[in-house]
Every structure is written in structure tokens, then in C-alpha cells.
Write a structure and sequence with these properties.
By secondary structure, this protein is mainly alpha-helical. The protein has 13 helices and 2 strands; from the N terminus they run ααββααααααααααα. It is elongated and about 165 Å long.
Length: 301
């Protein structure tokens, strides 16, 4: 229900009407808006009306209104659906409009004593008569919304094109129809630069009357589908430059061979607790350099 906007006047009637209608259809309540309540069906009886000229009795078949109608359950069900439909309609009206509709329904009940309920069909008829004739402001709004639509070049253009075509349909309902060939030219002008080849192909049409919006839509979708594999490759995440360089480095020459002698010496040193020979040589060299440094310092003093 929240998907249906609130009707606030002629400005959004063209958008509100189909959404409210679809909601009532989904709830099985639209039938009470378009159809009147079922007429009661009574049992028939034969009633005497006097004597004929020949001395016989005259009779006629009449409805027995002293008993409930045979379709009373259907009538009750219709009124239940009517109340639900009217409630749903009233919930999606601006408070000012809802008050106006409620006053109209109450006045109708007062003027017609045989009517003891408020009809959803009467409310819908009043709304359509009052707000179904949009003015210049509503027509301008539809035109601006239609012209502001942007057809994407890196996504499926179906939704954007359908939005433009729906705008043209609503403008036609507002008695401001755009000629078909002008609709086609507007649609072509909105195609993205990624479809420039398609635009050039369409511009080669000899007769402007041959341009059809449905053909342009089909060709635009086909052009996007043909480009989509390329777009998917372009959008694939790239491997970092540094990672590619590292992985591309190849060691020249044969693979390194670990000397078994060095490995064995290291293992014996670890087992005996003594440092390996290379380590001892580094220690002796470090001590010798330290002694030389101390001797140089004493001589300078």
C-alpha cells in the first residue's frame, strides 16, 4: 500500500491512477469500482388478481420481497469489498481531498434515502472528473521529467527508454500528444555516445515518418547487448602492477643447489652448541677491528 503515492491534485493524478488501480486489482477490489452491486434476486410467487371475463380467476407471478433475496450472500460480499476498496482509496488521498470526497459521499446518502452505504465507484468517479484533467503545470511537469531522463551507456537502457515512452503516453492523456516521429527524434537525441554508430545508422533513414520508437528501443538494447562482453572485460579487476612485475621475474641460470657440506656443518654446530666456522671468523674480525679502533684513539690522545 505504501507504494501508492498520496494524491495531492492534478499534478500527480497520472501517476497515482494506475498505481491505485493496480493495488485494487491485486486485492480483488477493483470490480466494485467498475461494476454496480448485484441486483437482489427474490423468489417468485403466483398472486391472484381477480376474476377473468369468463368467470375464471386471474393471477400473476410476482417477487416475494417478504423474504431475503436468494443472492443475499453475494450482496453482502459485494458491500464488504466496497468498504475495503473505499477505505484503501481514502487512505492514499491528501487530507483536504479526502475531506471533500467524504462530504460528497455523505451528501449523496442524505439525498438518496434508499442508499445506506458510501460507494467506492462514486468516489473514483469524482476523483477522475476533478483531477483527471491536468492543467498546464501538470503537463509541463510530465514534459520536464521525460526530457530529464538520461539513457546510460554502460548499463541496460531498457528502463530509461521505457520511462521516456511512458512520459509521452501521459502527455497524450493530458491532451498534449507528441507526434510519433518527434518522439523518435527525441529518443535518438538521448542515446549515449557509446551508441554513436547506431545514431548515424538511424540518421540515414530516408523518410522521417518511418522512424518508430519501438524499433529504436530494440536497436539500442541490441547495441548494448553486443557491447556488454567488452564492458565486462573492461570492468574486470586489474592485477596490481607490482604483483605482475614480481611474478614476471625469471631467475637466470640453473636453479640454486644447497651444499650438503654447509648444511651438515650448520647441523653439527647446532648440536654441539658451538658457532659454525663462518660465524667465528666474523667474530674474530669484529674484535680485531675494535682493538684497532681503540689503539687509534689512544694514539690521538
Amino acid at each position: 500500500m505504501t507504494l501508492v503515492p498520496v494524491l495531492n491534485g492534478s499534478m500527480n493524478w497520472q501517476a497515482w491512477k494506475p498505481m491505485m488501480m493496480n493495488y485494487l486489482l491485486s486485492q480483488g477490489q477493483w470490480k466494485v469500482v467498475t461494476n454496480k452491486f448485484p441486483a437482489p434476486e427474490y423468489e417468485t410467487i403466483t398472486r391472484s388478481t381477480g376474476q377473468s371475463e369468463g368467470g375464471g380467476s386471474k393471477s400473476e407471478i410476482v417477487e416475494d420481497t417478504s423474504k431475503p433475496p436468494k443472492n443475499q450472500s453475494d450482496i453482502n460480499n459485494w458491500f464488504d469489498i466496497n468498504d475495503k476498496a473505499l477505505g484503501n482509496i481514502m487512505l492514499r488521498l491528501h487530507p483536504t481531498i479526502a475531506t471533500t470526497v467524504l462530504n460528497l459521499l455523505q451528501k449523496t446518502m442524505e439525498e438518496n434515502t434508499d442508499i445506506n452505504t458510501m460507494f467506492a465507484s462514486l468516489a473514483w468517479e469524482f476523483l477522475e472528473t476533478t483531477y483527471g484533467k491536468p492543467g498546464i503545470a501538470a503537463t509541463y511537469k510530465e514534459l520536464k521529467v521525460t526530457m530529464d531522463v538520461v539513457i546510460p551507456g554502460n548499463a541496460n537502457p531498457t528502463l530509461a527508454i521505457d520511462t521516456i515512452l511512458i512520459g509521452f503516453t501521459r502527455m497524450a492523456a493530458s491532451k498534449c500528444a507528441v507526434p510519433p516521429h518527434l518522439q523518435a527524434m527525441i529518443l535518438v537525441s538521448k542515446l549515449p555516445y557509446q551508441m554513436s554508430a547506431l545514431v548515424q545508422s538511424i540518421c540515414q533513414t530516408d523518410n522521417i515518418e518511418d522512424l518508430k520508437t519501438n524499433d529504436i528501443k530494440r536497436k539500442a538494447i541490441l547495441a548494448w547487448e553486443q557491447r556488454s562482453p567488452i564492458q565486462n572485460n573492461n570492468n574486470r579487476p586489474q592485477q596490481p602492477q607490482a604483483a605482475r612485475k614480481i611474478s614476471a621475474v625469471q631467475r637466470s641460470g640453473p636453479p640454486p643447489v644447497i651444499s650438503t657440506t654447509t648444511a651438515a656443518t650448520s647441523a653439527r654446530g647446532a648440536a654441539t652448541g658451538q658457532p659454525e666456522p663462518s660465524t667465528r671468523r666474523l667474530e674474530r674480525r669484529t674484535r680485531r677491528m675494535w682493538r684497532n679502533f681503540q689503539g687509534d684513539m689512544r694514539r690521538q690522545k
